[in-house]
């Protein structure tokens, strides 16, 4: 069973930076996707970024392009989400997610495994 351990949330001022980490374990093969969704109060869960270990591709939501960077360490199946130039609208619970499939999805239904959420609050 795949398990995901997320960490790194917190309180930051607008314009600041945070780095989230997600360590994955229990993958049965090297065919997997791993990334992040977020859910703000009163809103639906939305995709932030995802990495496919099949082709090495990474996708980003338009709202975070140029500000967030997803990096991965294949050796220990860990991904890091570096979040720069944070805005109040980035405030949300961020969820690490993964699946043993080939392509990243923009929809939560495309992921089977979820880690616990980590709260990111951007406020002055």
Q: What would your notes on this structure say?
A:
This protein is mostly beta strands and 124 residues long. It is built from no helices and eleven strands. Helix content is 0%, strand content 48%.
User: Biggest sheet, in brief?
Assistant: 7 strands, mixed
| Low-confidence runs | none
> Which class of secondary structure composition applies to the elements?
mainly beta
What share of residues are in beta strands? over 45%
Q: How are the elements arranged and paired?
A:
Layout: E1 3-7, E2 10-12, E3 18-25, E4 33-39, E5 46-52, E6 58-60, E7 68-73, E8 78-83, E9 92-99, E10 113-114, E11 118-122
Parallel strand pairs: 2-11
Antiparallel strand pairs: 1-3, 3-8, 4-5, 4-9, 5-6, 7-8, 9-10, 9-11
Concise description?
The protein is mainly beta. It has strands spanning 3-7, 10-12, 18-25, 33-39, 46-52, 58-60, 68-73, 78-83, 92-99, 113-114, 118-122.
């Amino acid at each position: 069973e795949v398990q995901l351990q997320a960490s790194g949330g917190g309180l930051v001022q607008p314009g600041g930076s945070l780095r989230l980490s997600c360590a994955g374990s229990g993958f049965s093969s090297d065919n997997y996707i791993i990334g992040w969704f977020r859910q703000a109060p009163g809103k639906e869960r939305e995709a932030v970024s995802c990495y496919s270990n099949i082709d090495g591709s990474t996708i980003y939501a338009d709202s975070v392009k140029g500000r967030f960077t997803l990096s991965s360490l294949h050796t220990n199946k860990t991904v890091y989400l570096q979040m720069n130039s944070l805005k109040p609208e980035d405030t949300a619970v961020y969820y690490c997610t993964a699946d043993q499939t080939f392509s990243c999805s923009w929809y939560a239904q495309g992921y089977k495994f979820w880690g616990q959420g980590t709260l990111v609050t951007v406020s002055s």
